[in-house]
Amino acid sequence: MRILKEIVIFVTLLTLPQTLAVMRNAEQDLIDYLFTNYSKQARPVILPSISVNATFGIELVQLIKVDDRNQFVTTKMWVRQKWTNMLLKWDPKKFDNLKTVQVEGHLVWSPDIVLYNNADDSFTGGTIKYKTRISLHSDGTHVWLAPATFTSTCDIDIRYFPFDKQECKMKFGSWTFDKGGISLSKDIRPLITSQYVNSSEWDIVGTKNVINSVKYKCCKEPFMDVTFTLILLRKPLYYVFNVITPCLVLVTTILFGFFLPPESGERISLTITILLAVAVFLQLVSDALPRNSDNIPVLAIFYMVVMAESAFSLVTTCVVLIIHYRSDEKGTTPMPEWVKDLFLRKLAKYLGIRVTCNLEDGHFQDEVFHYDNKLNNINGSLNKSNMENGEHKNQDNNGFYSNEVERRQSVELMMAERMKMRNGDGDETEENTLDGILNEVKMITSTIRHKQQREDTQEQWRILAKVLDRIFFWLFLLTVFLSAICILVPVYRINH
To answer: What's the Cα-to-Cα distance from 490 to each of 106, 214, 289, 297, 299, rounded to whole Å?
Structure first.
């Protein structure tokens, strides 16, 4: 029994190399059979009038880069090509039922399907781009599956940046053979599968692939191509938090400048500092903005509006300070009546500003007339007293003096002057002295009245500055709010 087993093992070892040689040589014999007297330069058809049916498709794996400035898109994908080669067919029964064999791409004829809108330095397509083997089937079907990275041109519209949506097309077709040479069809499988790696900047919201037959000026027959369209939607979160939000924060700080009193002297410094900060920040984020002269990005428009609003705040601050410090001038200009009526009587009430000064100019003239009458009455009383040999009648001044003490002091002063005049100065001296006293009193009264009038005018200008400051504050707040809402929100809603 043992001897029989040794014999079987010995016979098996002797026949194993031959068996392995037969298994190895089946594929080798097939390759030799297929490529004997075969030329890859010829189109794989029996009759020249027959076109090669080729199917082309892609499966997107990763969106590598979307270059806004240079207007191109870089993608990584799997290319699927399938065509029929009538010159490379065999009977599987003659080759140990071998139905499929893989060969290098440069050994067989392949359709020269290239990317028409190529933006890469190298010519993409065929054996230059695809480095994998081609699967040959016994019925003449050839399948070429290969990974590839393409850089294609894309007309990027940055008008709504960073809330933009782009449509980038990739046009694949034969560069040499027209429709009569290669009849191209599209692969029905989807472009996006579970193999796709999500992009951190873009979402692919849609895809399209269509077959086109285009007739060019160079050739009589039309050429066929498969055009794939990627609908890309930008993710704006990065730009919202790193570009838009800091800008809004800078604008918000301008609002606090309106609450600073003009006497502090810091309003101009604060406004200029914020304006410079916005300009510097715009320079810092300019690298993130696409460079395109055809359209202006919404984000750039928003920054220009913010800078204009900051400049507007600076101008309004200057206006308020000019009006406020106009009240410190010695010869204060009276305020026009229409300004008082519009700003101090009407708008101040609606804006919650209290008017603490007298707005009527006529009351000064009434006081002058009132005080002159009182002084004339005093003069007449003194003259009458002199005529009646010193008899004095205490007359009420009807409110000329502010209190009883001043009234008593004035009467004592007049009595002393009368006694002095009675002691020998004479009627002419007495009359001159009384006129001088009355003139001095009139001068003092006029000075007080002018001072009060000047103070009221100054206060009117200060209140006008407050009213304008409050108006500019609400106008600036409304402008900032409307600019942010009208510029950013509609653009966001268009594509999102």
So the answer is: 54, 38, 20, 14, 13
If one counts every other C-beta atom within 10 angstroms of the C-beta of residue 81, the result is 22
**Backbone φ and ψ of 200, nearest 5°:** -80, -10
Give the predicted TM-score (pTM) of the model.
0.67
DSSP labels, 113-150 = EEETTB-SSS--BHHHH--S-EEEETTSEEEEEEEEEE
Residues 482-492 have pLDDT tens digits of: 888 888 777 76
- How far from 209 is each of 55, 117, 157, 362, CA to CA, in Å? 13, 15, 21, 86
CB distance 163 to 496 below 8 Å:
yes
Phi-psi category of residue 97: left, alpha or beta, with phi > 0 → left and psi -120 to 50 → alpha: left
Tokens 């449509």, located at residue: 167
Would you put residue 96 in left (φ > 0), alpha (ψ -120 to 50) or beta?
left
Cα distance between residue 422 and residue 319, in whole Å: 64
Report pLDDT digits (tens) over 411-451. Answer: 456 555 555 555 555 455 555 666 677 777 777 777 777 77
Nearest to 185 by CA among 214, 230, 225: 225
d(CA 50, CA 272): 77
How many angstroms from the chain centroid is the CA of residue 179? 48
Radius of gyration of the chain (CA): 50
User: Strand 52-67 to strand 165-174: parallel, antiparallel, or no bridges (unpaired)?
Assistant: unpaired
53-57-59 Cα angle (round to 5): 165
Distances (CA, A) of 352 to 282, 357, 464, 495: 37, 15, 13, 43
- Residues 6+ positions from 14 with CB-CB distance below 8 Å: none
> In whole angstroms, what is the distance from residue 407 CA to residue 399 CA?
10
CB 134 within 8 A of CB 110: yes
Q: What pLDDT does 399 receive?
A: 40
Judged by average pLDDT, the poorest of 95-104, 343-352, 386-395 is 386-395
Phi, psi angle pair for 130, to nearest 5°: -100, 125
Which residues, other chains included, contact 108 with Cβ-Cβ below 8 Å and sequence gap of 6+?
40, 85, 88, 134, 136, 142
Q: What is the mean pLDDT of the chain?
A: 78
Inter-helix orientation angle 298-326/427-495, to 10°: 170
> Residues of the chain with pLDDT > 70: what percent?
74
DSSP state of 345: I
Residue 48 carries which DSSP code?
A: T
